[in-house]
């Protein structure tokens, strides 16, 4: 690890421990983005994060709630499937989240199922309850894709923060530092929104699978009720015939 990397990580660690929970998750989303993108060019950042990532997970998990653990679990699942770190480190992160019991490693298909694979998903023993579906749909009402305020903030980011060709306009240290602050804020904003979108995508995929199970259970119920209806119609016809015959016999009795 270079001295500059060590200094930057130390500063980030200090800020992360003092930040509110939502900000701490943003730091982890940002770390995930840096780790995965830098891995294509070299292992330096991935290796630099390794000594502190377990403590970061512990810190966020300790201060967070069940929803926070769910977000951390998504990040861990991606790292497991893409073999971002060695199994020893991944197991440590798994123990932080799930305790001594090792978390089940999800397959790539479970993380990112293709549309044609939905039908082949194994159905649970019991179909989902209507209340469960309503709750999942209500949660999506506050999903990242519907955050118009944040989308507006992102669309209003100045061109300088994402267009390297405009860096030549920096002529003095003051303007450079001002742009640096804007870039840092934009980076955190986009990392946080990307993390929320990734979580929303995962939730929508899970909801799609749940809806397919629910729809299949409704189709099965419809088929069964149609069969029952035909059966009861036949029984009603027989009972009606018996009633008609019985009345005819009673009318003929003395």
From TrEMBL:
Any Pfam family hit: CREPT
A molecular function GO annotation: RNA polymerase II complex binding
| A single BP term in Gene Ontology | mRNA 3'-end processing
Q: Does the keyword Cell cycle apply?
A: no
Entry's SMART domains?
RPR (SM00582)
Domain named CID: residues: 1-101
Coiled coil, from the record: 215-249
Q: What UniProt keywords apply to this chain's record, in alphabetical order?
A: Coiled coil
Database matches in PROSITE patterns: CID (PS51391)
Output the InterPro entries linked to this UniProt entry.
Answer: CID_dom (IPR006569), ENTH_VHS (IPR008942), RPRD1A/B_C (IPR032337)
UniProt lists the family membership as follows: Belongs to the UPF0400 (RTT103) family.
Return the protein name.
Answer: CID domain-containing protein
> Which species is this record about?
Champsocephalus esox
């Amino acid at each position: 690890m270079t001295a500059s990397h060590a200094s930057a990580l130390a500063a980030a660690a200090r800020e992360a421990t003092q930040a509110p929970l939502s900000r701490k998750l943003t730091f982890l989303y940002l770390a995930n983005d840096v780790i995965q993108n830098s891995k294509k060019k070299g292992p330096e950042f991935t290796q630099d994060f390794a000594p502190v990532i377990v403590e970061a997970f512990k810190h966020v998990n300790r201060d967070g709630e069940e929803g926070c653990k769910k977000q951390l679990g998504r990040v861990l699942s991606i790292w497991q499937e893409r073999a971002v770190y060695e199994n020893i480190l991944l197991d440590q992160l798994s123990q932080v989240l799930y305790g001594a019991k090792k978390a089940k490693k999800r397959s790539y298909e479970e993380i990112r199922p293709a549309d044609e694979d939905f039908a082949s998903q194994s159905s649970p023993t019991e179909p989902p309850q209507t209340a469960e579906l309503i709750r999942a749909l209500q949660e999506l009402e506050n999903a990242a894709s519907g955050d118009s305020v944040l989308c507006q903030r992102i669309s209003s980011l100045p061109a300088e923060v994402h267009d390297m060709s405009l860096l030549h306009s920096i002529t003095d240290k003051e303007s450079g530092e001002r742009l640096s602050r804007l870039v840092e804020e934009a980076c955190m904003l986009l990392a946080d929104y990307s993390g929320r979108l990734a979580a929303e995508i995962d939730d929508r995929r899970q909801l799609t699978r749940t809806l397919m199970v629910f729809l299949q259970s409704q189709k099965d119920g419809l088929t069964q009720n149609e069969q029952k209806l035909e059966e009861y119609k036949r029984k009603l016809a027989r009972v009606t015939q018996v009633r008609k015959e019985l009345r005819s016999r009673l009318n003929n009795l003395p």
